């Protein structure tokens, strides 16, 4: 039996922390590296610094088994591992649609500099096409002579809220730019999912980089498509949810990502389509620039559309009106509020002079940090008390399952609910006495 490769994971955000814990779960010795000592301290103590179902259990198991540890010292990781996964962030550059690659560059350079034995450096971060080749050249310049140091790209497709499942049982493993040696190392790392039938797609660097951004661009396009259709539904009195169900039966279309509503947010989709737009522009691929611009605009317009609905429900102005906002996270099962459509709408109504009370079952703390001037409640009941209008902006199960008759007893008489995720049982709410409004939901 050949010894199992030792693994480092650089960057311990959603992606890195989950990847590190999953690799330990698969039986590898893993070190996670982060520049933030607070994160390293928390993870070392078995505490996940964000909400991700199933991850705390995995982390604790890894740490307690001794297979998983964390450090701020990149040199220590470089000396320890054979396969290094770079999982650092690629945020949107301020004042530009382009991606900020400084963390990616620092990770590859820092690792390469400190290597003491042969190593495979693997990019997982989502990057503009061409980054991998640039990093490979830089790594060759910086790495100590005489070592075999190679680079490959292995994009990550995990969804927040399902990160553990997606990491342990991915839909596919895509690897770009690996030599036979690198290919073999990555097949060892992914032996378990591969043995369970997960497809392994070996390709070149640019194709691997593009698979990831194209996947996100397609998902975003699907959402903006159905949101544009939902506007037609509103004008024509049609029901977009029934329409999505009917479309979804066509296997060429599929039902997933056809939920009309407030649109997409989070740390990935919005910034990834903008980075793709930017990179496509640099490359002179103008069709994609135009397409992504429309997808982005339709998506951002959904937020305005919901604000306008709230203004209308308040009779033309929200000034001093009480608005209960249910949901702040960009989607359920996460406390992530990065580019959250829900918080954006709440903040927009607050700016227009409404008295907004926000409740989210998990994202209260992260929301408060992002928008400290908003008022946060600790329950659905508290958020809707005395409200003229209630907005459902994130489709958490507790909102879907709430008792509309009970809630109507707490609001001002004649309250309206705006179901911006089309997630409530409309008839039940109407029967309970609410004025119900959805997006593209027939009256
Ligand atoms: C996404 C991709 O799905 C994942 O593969 C990639 O690795 C990272 O980006 P994530 O950001 O976790 O994952 O969220 P996702 O579940 O894709 O949802 C994105 C946004 O789209 C959410 O704001 C969600 O509310 C919205 N959405 C999703 C819709 O508005 N309608 C839908 O039908 C589906």
TrEMBL record:
Keyword Oxidoreductase applies: yes
Keywords in alphabetical order: NAD, Oxidoreductase
Biological process (GO), any one: UDP-glucuronate biosynthetic process
GO molecular function: NAD binding; UDP-glucose 6-dehydrogenase activity
Domain (UDP-glucose/GDP-mannose dehydrogenase C-terminal) ranges: 324-426
Active site (catalytic residues): 268
Binding annotation for substrate: 157-160, 212, 257-261, 265, 331
Pathway linked to the protein: Nucleotide-sugar biosynthesis; UDP-alpha-D-glucuronate biosynthesis; UDP-alpha-D-glucuronate from UDP-alpha-D-glucose: step 1/1
Chemical reaction(s) catalysed: UDP-alpha-D-glucose + 2 NAD(+) + H2O = UDP-alpha-D-glucuronate + 2 NADH + 3 H(+)
List of residues binding NAD(+): 34, 39, 90, 126, 160, 271, 338
EC number of this enzyme: 1.1.1.22
InterPro entries with a match to the protein in the record: 6-PGluconate_DH-like_C_sf, NAD(P)-bd_dom_sf, UDP-Glc/GDP-Man, UDP-Glc/GDP-Man_DH_C, UDP-Glc/GDP-Man_DH_C_sf, UDP-Glc/GDP-Man_DH_dimer, UDP-Glc/GDP-Man_DH_N, UDPglc_DH_bac
Taxonomy, superkingdom: Bacteria
Family assignment from sequence similarity: Belongs to the UDP-glucose/GDP-mannose dehydrogenase family.
Protein name: UDP-glucose 6-dehydrogenase
Organism encoding this protein: Pseudokineococcus marinus
Lineage summary: Bacteria, Bacillati, Actinomycetota, Actinomycetes, Kineosporiales
């Amino acid at each position: 039996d050949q010894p199992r490769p030792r693994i480092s994971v650089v960057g311990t955000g959603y992606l890195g922390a989950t990847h590190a814990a999953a690799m330990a779960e698969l039986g590898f010795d893993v070190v996670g590296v982060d520049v933030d000592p607070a994160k390293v301290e928390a993870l070392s103590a078995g505490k996940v610094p964000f909400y991700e179902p199933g991850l705390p259990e995995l982390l604790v198991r890894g740490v307690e088994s001794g297979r998983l540890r964390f450090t701020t010292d990149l040199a220590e990781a470089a000396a320890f591992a054979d396969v290094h996964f770079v999982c650092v962030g690629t945020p949107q550059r301020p004042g530009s649609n382009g991606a900020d690659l400084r963390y990616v560059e620092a990770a590859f350079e820092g690792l390469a500099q400190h290597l003491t034995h042969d190593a495979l450096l693997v990019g997982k971060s989502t990057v503009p096409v061409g980054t991998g080749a640039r990093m490979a050249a830089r790594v060759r310049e910086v790495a100590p002579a005489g070592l075999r140091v190679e680079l490959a790209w292995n994009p990550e497709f995990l969804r927040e809220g399902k990160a553990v499942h997606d990491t342990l049982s991915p839909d596919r493993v895509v690897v770009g730019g690996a030599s036979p040696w690198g290919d073999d190392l990555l097949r060892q790392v992914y032996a378990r999912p591969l043995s369970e039938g997960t497809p392994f797609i070996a390709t070149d660097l640019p194709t691997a980089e593009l698979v990831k951004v194209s996947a996100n661009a397609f998902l975003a396009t699907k959402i903006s498509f159905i949101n544009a259709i939902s506007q037609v539904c509103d004008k024509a009195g049609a029901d977009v949810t029934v329409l999505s169900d009917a479309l979804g039966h066509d296997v060429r279309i599929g039902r997933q990502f056809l939920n009309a509503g407030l649109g997409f947010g989070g740390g990935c989709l919005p910034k990834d389509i903008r980075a793709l737009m930017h990179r496509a522009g640099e490359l002179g691929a103008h069709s994609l620039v135009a397409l992504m611009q429309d997808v982005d605009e339709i998506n951002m317009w959904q937020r305005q559309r919901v604000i306008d609905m709230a203004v209308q429900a308040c009779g033309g102005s929200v000034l001093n009106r009480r608005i209960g906002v249910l949901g702040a996270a960009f989607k359920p099962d996460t406390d992530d509020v990065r580019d959250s459509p829900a918080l954006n709408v709440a903040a927009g109504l607050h700016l227009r002079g409404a008295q907004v009370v926000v409740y989210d079952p998990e994202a209260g703390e992260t929301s408060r940090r992002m928008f400290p001037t908003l008022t946060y409640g600790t329950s659905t009941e508290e958020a809707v008390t005395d409200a003229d209008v209630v907005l459902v902006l994130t489709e958490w199960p507790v909102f879907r399952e709430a008792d509309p008759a009970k809630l109507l007893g707490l609001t001002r008489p004649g309250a309206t609910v705006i179901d911006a995720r089309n997630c409530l049982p409309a008839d039940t709410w109407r029967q309970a006495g609410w004025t119900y409004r959805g997006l593209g939901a027939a009256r």
